[in-house]
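Q: My collaborator sent me two sequences in one message, no labels, and asked for predicted structures for both. Can we handle them in order? The first one she listed is below.
A: Yes, handling them in the order given. First sequence, followed by its structure tokens:
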Amino acid sequence: MKLLVSSDDNGQVKEVIFNRGTDTSKKDGQQPISIKNFCTEPKVISKSRLINFSDKYLVAAKLGGSLNIYELPDEEIEMEDEEKYKLLHSYNLEVEKGDVPIALIANDELESIIVAYESSKVFIINLSNEDFNVDPILINLDINKPIAAFVENPYEHGTFAYGGKEVDVKIIRLFEKNVNHEIFSKKDYKKSFIPKELFKAKNAKNDHLDLRPQIWISQILFFKDQPTNGYKFITATRYGQIRLYDTTHGRRPIKDFKLCDKPIITLSFVNENESEIIVTDTHNLIAKHSLTLVDENAHKTISASAGVIIKPVAKLLGKFSEGGNTGATFGVASNGEILVTGGLDRYVRVFDIESRELLGKVYLGVEISSILIVDDEDEIEEADIVNEAPIIQKRKRRDIATEAKEESDEEDLWNELEINEKKSTKKQKTV
């Protein structure tokens, strides 16, 4: 399999190629096929984020407003390392030196990327012109506090949500539903990007001591099953909570679960029907929870005034603990079958989502904040007898049931041929 991993220590991107079963933490363990550094300019400490834009560009947003556009290599063409990931253009966005990018989003309809910073500055950058000569659009959100989450609603064009410390979730429209990439051909295109508030969440009810719950949104996800004239979404907080909202039922969360005591820093859907999630925290937690199965007596609080208070919790379906994860996990990527994680302990790990089995573990020597899955197939090194050079070939994973069925069909075919041959021989003898 092949991954692209951001390096926070020097701002580079590592291309990692390895097979299932690789484990560099073991002395005699299977080793990766290749680990190479790309995108080596500039060498800075960088809380970077990576995205694949239309299988054409690799986009890296870095600390302090640096945003680089690299050419993605064609996987079907063999290329020398110096030809890969060429820097095509750099933007220096108008933010403070230490401003952290919290979101990097590709929007196909606009043929643009959208990058949001902790300072609540949002930039829209059109990439449809290969000269990169369209000026970025700066949007200042109507808030004077830093934000920690900024996401697109993938089921309604132009709609986004954000939140942060003492900033409860707001849903806004950045541009109208009919706006597409053609807007950038107009001189006054910037006038089409004015945020409009659609929804503002209300805090959960006061606790048993009548104290107001603290707000610190760290992640937001929209459900694909969106209600008519409303929105359905889930948030994670740095107080270890997840909250579910349906705006047709009011501004408060309809469900509020405490999952852990540490801050939740990533939140991902696991399955197709979005009934399961994976969360990671600032300690060592990587856990899968159900949104439909609830443990009614899972969380207990002892209060001197109110006694024992029992609250329901979204059922824990298991932890991804094989491989000894240590420290915060910032980078998480998934394709529905495998889960790839990385963070402070400098290891990238690959898990099977269903079984939670560790499929691979590679030490990279750098802190990781963002991961892209380029290819989830194994690579096999075979010796070329003539040139005595390693050749890398693709090996697709095959379903055992499929293989068994094919073998059974092949056996049936041979049996049928034998029967027909016997009949033909018998008929010839009769004649």
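Q: And the one she listed second?
A: Here it is, processed independently of the first:
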Amino acid sequence: MATGEKRLPREAFTKKLRRLCERLDERHQRTIPFKHWYFKDRELVAEVAVISLWVAGSYARGALDCGDLDVVLQLAGPRDSPPLSTLTKAFFGTLPYVRYYLGEPAKNSSGVEFPEAVLIWSGPGCDWNARVAAIREVSGAGRHNRPTDAAPLRLEQLGADLDQLASATEARERGELEWAFREFNPESLQPIPVEEIEFGEEYLMRCANLWGKKSQRIVPALLRLAREVEPLGDWSDSDSSRTVIRCGGTLVHVGRPELCVWRLHDNPSIRQLALIPHLTARGPNGAWLIRRGASHPDHQTMRGTQVFYHSDEIGPVVRSVSQHKSYISWIQVLDLFATEEQARQNLKGKDRDIRSATDDELLELTGLCDALRIGRRKLAITWAAREYAKATKPASIAEIASTLKRLQGAAPPLTSGTPLPSLSARSQ
């Protein structure tokens, strides 16, 4: 878990736990009105009773400071009970930093067993004060180490479930994914003066006007991050979601982002995911950057490829090409060459350098364009370039690798090119 997560002293959670038990002593059975997802046109009513309450997590282990209070509730009531948030608000009001799970410690809605759970409230008249006092404080007892703790964001910050988080963590352990967390500090969240907003960044500002207020707060930090990790990238729409946008080869999710690592698979237009949840008091607040690892199948597919391309003082030279019959008229095309000699012959007297890219470095280039032109072959990278490439869908990474290897099949190994430069200069 990222170090940016806010933790509170144990005493603060002891007060919350006592408050929960006091509310149950007052009334452990309630009649709760609620809306059902199917019967949206009428209000339903449910009689719900709390049978037992356990405390779990770091508090139950005696930690001196905690990130939250994990509470497991066993209920009695109808099968179609109110949503968890409606139910807990009716019984306990709104208590920040309290996480509720339904069921029992061994099997509950979190999907994780809580072997350390302590039964606190078991019915009216129980001595819950003594049970709370019996939990000993243990110096150094923090979070329980689970494989999913390698993720820098809390599950509650994501539009994902525990299985998806565990799957991503396992892929990282196998070397198929790699990630980093860029924490937002107060300076990065400071507004950027209007006169310092560059031409291409105005598109992000227009899109951000459609976001919620919580998402709009991260715009300055997002701009500063993009200038660093996608200095040559252009902002553009990604799909129908208002909170998903692209900058170059980085797909940005804001709000409550999905853990959509599947978008990296066989997709040459995306080299990186940036998951940026709402800012919260607890945190961590920042961007979770996820990329393909060395063992990712796409990297294995690209292994053994090499191309040459033209570069100027800004970076790789990308051409604007008009598609006359398409509703998306202008697209960005990158020319690649199978040999250094071919790249040199196509300079046509222009003051440009010749660079080379090998293997997975190619995925750094494909995120900068809509289409590739390799000799006479045209390959669509994005859906916008289908007319240009005369294709029904974008090319796969396997198709790109196959095209390159076929062109280079009769050529000797190429080693004279200059390595792919760091993309550190902002595209103008």
